[in-house]
Amino acid sequence: MSPPWHPSSALQRPDSSPARSCTSPVGRRPETVTTFANPAALLGAVGTDLGITEWFEIDQHRIDSFARATGDEQWIHVDPARAAAGPFRGTIAHGYLTLSLLAPLTAQLLDVHDVQMAINYGLDRVRFLQPVRSGSRVRASASVTSAEVVSLGVRVGVKITVEIDGESKPALIADLIVLFAGTTPIPRNTTAATTKETS
Predict the structure, then answer these.
(1) Which residue segments constitute the domains of the chain, with CATH numbers given?
(2) Is the pLDDT of residue 61 over 90?
(3) Helix (H) / strand (E) containing 175
(4) Strands 172-182, 115-128: pairing kind
(5) Cβ atoms within 10 A of the Cβ of 70, count?
(6) Any idea which of 1-5, 29-33, 53-57, 124-128 has the lowest mean pLDDT?
């Protein structure tokens, strides 16, 4: 059996201590992760609620680092003094910074074994509903919305909501698509029913 899927980048605690792997994610006990033996097992997981991650702080250091990496250094993100008098009463995280956290946040909830590689296939829908102010804590909840066999493996749809601590409206809602390529080929006509019969 190959190692479980790991995200392309790992979350770190605000104190910059290294994050654990997908099987022991930041702030989350491994027994709370929903584990699948292989990509084919995801075919029977449509409708599964994957739960909620622990809270994670998006601090100014992370916002500044993202601004430098992307070249988006607009004052609403990197100038606390000016932003304090602005519409958000302080600096806010880039929407794409919050979006970039979906992979490691999802890894706190979803652990797929027997995977050769995992590819971010795309996003069907993204809506930024509330700005995330510097120093805010966020967490994600997710559910499996679709799963189908494709040439490389199983393509899975995951609906993710990122909420902000103390806010009634979420930061974003997104439909994430991930392609899990297993070590063993899956017949194209495989369905959830057949995987349950052979598991």
Answers:
(1) 30-58+92-198 (3.10.129.10)
(2) yes
(3) strand 172-182
(4) antiparallel
(5) 13
(6) 1-5
